[in-house]
Amino acid sequence: MPLHFELVTPAKLVRSEEVHMVVVPGTEGEFGVLAGHAPFMSTIKDGALKIYKTENGAPEEIRITGGFAEVGDAGLTVLAEHVDG
Amino acid sequence: MASLKELKGRINSVKSTQKITKAKQMVAAAKLRKAQAAAEDARPYATRLAQVMASLASKITVSENSPKLLAGTGSDKVHLLVVANSDKGLCGAFNANIVKAARVKAQELEAQGKTVLFYLVGRKGRPVIRREYPDQIAHMFDTSDVRYPGFNEAERVADELVAMYEAGKFDVAHLFYAKFRSALVQEPTDQQIIPVPAPKASMDSGSLTSDAVTEYEPDEEEILAALLPRYLKTQLFGALLENAASEQGASMTAMDNATRNAGDLIKKLTIVYNRTRQAAITTELVEIIAGAEAL
């Protein structure tokens, strides 16, 4: 089952897609989110999100600053103030 | 009566004015579409952040230990009015309406014995407020070096506001901008931004209203403290976007009116011109005939 992942900045919705896993650099340590993760909220350190499209594929990295992650029934939503690339 | 040459000159000058207003109207229409799209794009972030804020705010109680941005400074002596205007004119009463709303509020607050300070964003509001409150302008934020005020500007304004707030320069901040209703209607709006009013929890089934217990990392209060300045930025950004759309809408309407007015004026002047011309011809003919008869 894929994980629904959304990356949102104040200017626009950057990503909205189904992925396998996302590794988020939380303020209290990195955490990976797979589908069916328990509801969870965390602030994010400035750093790179690692997005695994498939289980064994190479991760895609997106650098974000001023971030905040929220995991709910609908999937993972990352709010970021700035996104590079 | 004006001479033929004078009339011709006036018709031509009105015609060139009409060309300018028409061009500005079309430019505004194109920019309005763009501004509306930008406002549309900003909505997902704003709604999500508001949802998060609402669910966090409902979980903690406001006490003295709460972040100052939420709880306030404990007094409401000094009010800061943040007035967002445009940098360019040719948009009818757009700027005047915003400034008027701010002035009414300022008078009301001063009548209650409060101190009022101004923080001006954009160029067009400056002269009016500087004339009336010369010593009460805390800062004038310049947006004329960027084409469209964006999130970076909102961020800088928010940072400055928070710094001023933490330095104890003011207790309450209100934001004045024009809310975009349609190209015809822009509503000057007064919104309190500091202390941050707790967003109301919406009833729609967002991802946050699930019954499962949400875990927080770090705890609720720390997340809230981290999110408050961001929420402020988002609100300012939203206001700037609304303002941009309103400005273009107002400009479009004003320029449409101006173009139509110029058209009417040209029509009237042309009639006068033709009448004068005919009168001149008739007079000449009468003179020639009278001359011929005299022979």
Short summary of the structure?
The complex is a heterodimer of chains A (about 80) and B (about 300). Chain A has about 80 residues and is an all-beta fold. Chain A is about 0% helix and about 70% strand.
Structure characteristics:
heterodimer; A: 85 residues; mainly beta; ATP Synthase, domain 1; 8-stranded mixed β-sheet; B: 295 residues; alpha/beta; Pyruvate Kinase, Chain: A, domain 1; 5-stranded mixed β-sheet; elongated
Give a written overview of the molecule.
The complex is a heterodimer of chains A (about 80) and B (about 300). Chain A is mainly β and about 80 residues long. Chain A has a single domain, classed as ATP Synthase, domain 1. Chain A is about 0% helix and about 70% strand. Chain A contains no helices and 8 strands. Chain A has strands spanning about 5-10, 15-20, 20-25, 30-35, 40-45, 45-50, 60-70, 75-85. In chain A, a hairpin with a 2-residue loop joins strand 7 (about 60-70) and strand 8. The radius of gyration of chain A is 11 Å and the shape is globular. Chain B has helices spanning about 5-60, 70, 95-110, 125-130, 150-165, 220-295; strands at about 80-85, 115-120, 135-140, 170-180, 185-195, 215. In chain B, strands 3-2-1-4-5 form a 5-stranded mixed sheet, with helices on both faces. Chain B has 6 helices and 6 strands, in the order H-H-E-H-E-H-E-H-E-E-E-H. In chain B, strand 4 and strand 5 (about 185-195) form a beta hairpin. In chain B, helix 1 packs antiparallel against helix 6 (about 220-295) and helix 5 packs across helix 6. The interface of A and B includes residues 11, 27, 41 and 81 of A. Strand 5 of chain A pairs parallel with strand 6 of chain B.
